[in-house]
Predict the 3D structure of the following.
Amino acid sequence: MKNLIEDIGVIGVEGEATEPMKVSQEQNTGKSRKLYIESYGCQMNFSDSEIVAAILGKAGFDTTSDPSQADLIFLNTCSIREKAEQTVRHRLHHIQSYKKKKPEMMIGILGCMAERLKTKLLEEEKIVDLVAGPDAYRDLPNLIDQVDDGDKAVNTFLSREETYADITPVRLGSNGVTAFISIMRGCDNMCSFCVVPFTRGRERSRDPHSIVAEATDLFHKGFREVTLLGQNVDSYKWSEEENNKARLEKNGINQVVNFANLLELVAQVHPDLRIRFSTSHPKDITDEVLKVMARYENICKYIHLPVQSGNTRILELMNRGYSREWYLNKVERIRTILGNECGISSDMITGFCSETEEEHLETLSLMDLVQYDYAYMFAYSERPGTLASKKFPDDIPAEVKTRRLEEIINKQREHSYLRHLQDVGTVQRVLIEGPSRRSEEHWQGRTSANRVTVFPKGNKNKGEYVNVMIERCTSGTLIGKIVE
Ligand code: SF4
């Protein structure tokens, strides 16, 4: 059998994605100008790029997948680690060659790096014409006009209201089966290592009616899975009183919608629409959410629950708001209410300020207790402007960080294999997302627990649910065959 091992998404490690995770696709609706957009970093950024494409679609731009054909190139950037920003600076040097051939081409930087650096980016990168932060995308047509008039343009205003709820995203590089829906923006947690509160602002939740409408619209367009996105979905909270006095006066009901309520509303769109969500926060996830997940078969049994460290003193320095015991208790609740089959993944930072060897070993022992399906693991990268950069010296030597990271990665690889192995010999319900990356004769999809599964196509089509008998696995892929 051809080597089908996809090995995708097994373990996210240091050495940030150097390739953009998403690129705009070819669109020809006869609009006069062409937009090329590359998205880096988290799913929130991909979802934002789809909102940007929609806003510019109304301003006379079609998207293109060929940067040399573009009138406007946007890089939607990540600032979570130094390496992520270096990746963008390298890409700008590469884009220079397109601008040389097409001097009228416009270059813009969006996202967290734009918000963090603001006008400084124009000084440091002369090729850049436009800088817009995550809350300024409605202003893009105006900023483009300014550049057309020969000026540089910047808008990095952070809003307390903006959720782009009324904008229907243009699905970029979509497989036509799965889609992201952003349910909130910003983050009110102040984890000491994180730039997000500074680059994405205060938390605000989107009107649940617009979220249900978007999920319903996607279902009717043939999508069969949506992922609800937020920096911390568990703190989603929306009320008429705070957000829609008019409807309150009309209905007289102050509807308050928390994340468990929202999850239920979206799950009721249609039983064949699968629901996923990311990212949860250990200090805020509730039994109410877990019980709603247990009640609906179409809510996938998978939770991304970043731990960051297994040691309580380090968690305090990180200002994570929970202890090692609290976290393990949350995992216990998940296992009790959703069973051992439920997939759990995590984020981990190794080598945080003053982390001792014993405290590092506590992260390894916590991993033994939880046994994650997979994890995104990084060595601590000090970010300018964060609480940690102001309060704690980045005092763990690079070689120690690297060695500790390797130990965590090796342990995770063992656990990923064990978690996938438990599915061998079982029949899993899989949603077909598209052809396997490694074989045109094989489909690829994911189980409810978010495990990538590869199997011969048979007479099935993309977007269909199939039952797959799992015959073998790797640490990142289940391999099997369709059974009726
Ligand atoms: S929860 Fe913490 S790590 Fe996550 S985005 Fe918010 S501040 Fe950053």
About this structure: The CA atoms of residues 290 and 306 lie 16 Å apart. Residues 398-421 form the longest helix (24 residues).
